[in-house]
Amino acid sequence: MAAACIFCKIIKGEIPSFKLFENERLLAFLDIQPLSLGHALIVPKHHGAKLTDIPDDSLTEILPLAKKIATAMDAENYNILQNNGRLAHQEVDHSFQNADSVDIVKVHFHMIPKPSQAEGLGIEWPAQKTDMDKLKALFNELKAKM
Question: Are 24 and 32 in contact (CB under 8 A)?
Fold first, then answer.
């Protein structure tokens, strides 16, 4: 865990939270700056900046836990969200600077109820036209790497 990381402080109990679930790999709690009532955060206890930094065994319970929270909320409509990197909207205020003054963020997942158009996550989906040759080349590259 990172000493200056707000999520690590919550995990260690240094900052109080409305804890919904905790085990040796995960902590889930209500967001104190929610997009809607019931907005919850699921945080792996393994500190990593991006999803690819988290060991697989720390990820296996996340979607079942998000499902459990959504079910407990009786959320009919909701978003499960996880962002990786600044351009993908991983927020600065969950970060700290390491010894090299580099901003480090911690992976976390959101379960955000969407009870109305005005509440919850707002999103645009700027779909682009597809170049099928480029898509096929990408497909072949990805299949070879996986």
Answer: no
Amino acid at 70: A
Active site residues: 108
Q: Which residue has the tokens 């700056």?
A: 33
Which residue ranges of the chain lie beneath pLDDT 70?
1-3, 88, 90-105
Q: 78-116, pLDDT tens digit by residue? A: 999 998 877 767 664 444 445 554 455 678 999 999 999
pTM of the model: 0.81
Sign of CA dihedral 31, 35, 38, 40: negative
Do 15 and 9 meet the contact criterion of CB atoms below 8 Å apart? yes
Contact, 131 vs 29, CB < 8 A? no
What is the distance in angstroms between the CA of the first residue and the CA of the last residue of the chain?
A: 30
Distance CA(6)–CA(104), nearest Å, equals 11
